[in-house]
Amino acid sequence: MDIRQLKYFLTIAQEGQVTRAAKLLNMEQPPLSRQLKLMEEELGVRLFDRGGKGLQLTASGELLKQKAEALLLQFDESLREVKGMEEGAGGVLSIGSVVSCISLLPARIEQFREKYPQITFKISEGDHFYLGEQLEKRAIDLIVARLPFEAQTDPQQYSILPLPSDPFVAVIPSAWTDYAGKAAIQMAELANVPFLTLKTDKTTRMHEQVMSECKRHGFEPNIICECSSVAIIMSLIASGIGATVFPKSVMSSFPGTVVKMLDIKDADFQSDVGILWLKDHYLPARTKQFIESFRGDSSS
Description:
This protein is an alpha/beta fold. The chain has helices at residues 3-15, 18-24, 29-43, 59-87, 106-115, 128-136, 205-216, 230-238, 285-292, and strands at residues 48-51, 54-57, 91-97, 119-125, 142-147, 158-173, 184-185, 194-198, 222-227, 244-247, 259-264, 270-278. The strands form three sheets. Strands 3, 4, 5, 6, 7, 10, 11 and 12 form an eight-stranded mixed β-sheet that branches. It has a two-stranded antiparallel sheet with strand order 1-2.
């Protein structure tokens, strides 16, 4: 069995039908069917149940699918590594970031492109679950995110470079005159204001951290809205709907927004930040160099 046959098998498994798989592979159906039969004969197992609803993987087929995906990924990475020997620091650097960390990228990208002008960037945004999936699929090279990273798979698969912690601040509408002239507040002053919180069904760490700090100061906030988007919360605050507590660096991603940022006098809680990439996998030169550009900022 060779790489070509494994690719045939995976295409059939993904399509659930030899005819569609053959079309995708730009070949006729009979030769593809013969290849599948040869694979089953060589292995001595049935890889598919052939029913009225198309082809369904058998238990043996499921196992081969998992192994084949891993082998082909390793094969592709090996080719990329060989090609990368000649590429140096060129190509596209794909970065995934949560919205609250986007502000860490512009200055770094500007400095990096001064040194490596041939590199271009592709930036994707999403929550921890989405970014973790994209990293595992190799659709992105690294992630910039709040820590701990809320992975849906084994968190031990990531290498992490911690960055300096980010203090939390209160963010309120500029139109709230009770806070005019203030540069800082006590945590308890947020007890009775309409409160907005960043929370999704899958990522809750920041929400829990803020709720814990409120509880430590003897109150539960009056939550009027849970949002999955930093941008939505900032828009609601700008409209005078409510207030929130965010990491301070978030504010630099929203220049010109009609909101007021206040330091919190009696709350010394921080949001941890880090760069993540997959352990024990090939990293292009450009990815290594970009990670190294953060090394001087590391809190480790």
